[in-house]
Write a structure and sequence with these properties.
Structural class: alpha+beta
Largest sheet: 8 strands, mixed
Distance between the termini: 44 Å
Number of domains: 2
CATH architecture of the largest domain: 2-Layer Sandwich
Strand content: 25-35%
Helix content: 10-25%
CATH superfamily of the largest domain: Bira Bifunctional Protein, Domain 2
Number of helices: 6
CATH class of the largest domain: Alpha Beta
CATH topology of the largest domain: BirA Bifunctional Protein, domain 2
Length: 266
């Protein structure tokens, strides 16, 4: 990371979009999502952003922990309030589209580094087949139409990372100013969430499918309640559900129930 966090630099990098966000930088917290959920319950406005230099107990999907030491990652959460009557189905996938678009915008002369940048259902950002980052969306309890969107991206892999995790993870391949990176992420989030507020996930579904890592590929479907099954991934529907082709029968698989792995050969 080529420079430290600086709220003023971030505001300048956001330009005209700065008025849509209220950014708080925390030197350390347990979880930006947990902190922002509490603030949302107390009336924090849409566009509130919590950024942590260090996160000691960040939450990932299915109860996993995301630990972020200073300089290792960009870790932040955004509070967004959806219009009344607009269901959040597919929101985490739409956020993934915004993240990948932001990274594509920043690739510049290093586009070759990003030719394998893609999305893995439901919430992973992949680079060269390895996990660069992820998304966690949580609805605010007792607050209708409000969601906290957590995003983490690896800037470098910690030395203490276990070998099995290191084998499947990757860090941002080029030096980057963290303020510029976050500004680009927030701009793309604003654009995508504006579309989502009107059209739902359908408004960005084609963008998601164009960046889908496993489109029409053979996969293994893993769940907590059934043995692994092989099938073909047929993308996602207009609500963000995975379309799993099991011997010609299409099944809708909902977020939070599965993981994907490249299919084995018996």
């Amino acid at each position: 990371m080529s420079s430290a966090w600086n709220v003023q630099q971030l505001i300048e990098a956001l330009g005209s979009a700065a008025c849509r966000f209220d950014v708080t930088l925390l030197p350390q917290c347990e979880s930006t999502n947990a902190e922002l959920l509490t603030r949302a319950e107390n009336g924090a406005p849409s566009g509130t952003v919590m950024v942590a230099e260090e996160q000691t107990a960040g939450r990932g999907r299915r109860g996993r922990v995301w630990i972020a030491s200073a300089g290792d990652s960009v870790t932040f959460s955004l509070l967004w309030r959806l219009p009344a009557g607009k269901p959040p189905m597919g929101l985490s996938l739409a956020v993934g589209v915004a993240v990948v678009k932001a990274l594509e915008n920043l690739s510049g002369a290093d586009k070759n580094c990003f030719t394998e940048l893609c999305l893995k259902w439901p919430n992973d950002i992949l680079l060269q087949g390895k996990k660069l980052g992820g998304v966690l969306v949580e609805l605010v309890p007792g607050v209708p139409h409000a969601a906290v969107i957590g995003i983490g991206l690896n800037l470098r892999l910690p030395e203490a990372l276990s070998p099995d995790v290191r084998a499947t993870a990757i860090a941002w391949p080029t030096p980057i100013d963290c303020n510029q990176l976050l500004a680009e992420l927030l701009r793309e989030l604003l654009a995508v969430l504006t579309i989502f507020s009107v059209d739902g996930f359908l408004g960005v579904r084609s963008d998601w499918l164009a960046r889908h890592a496993y489109q029409d590929a053979r996969i293994v479907l893993l769940t907590d309640f059934a043995p692994p099954r092989q099938g073909v991934c047929r993308g996602v529907d207009e609500e963000g559900a995975l379309l799993f082709d099991a011997e010609g029968k299409i099944e809708r698989i909902l977020s939070g129930e599965i993981s994907l792995r490249p299919a084995w050969t018996p």
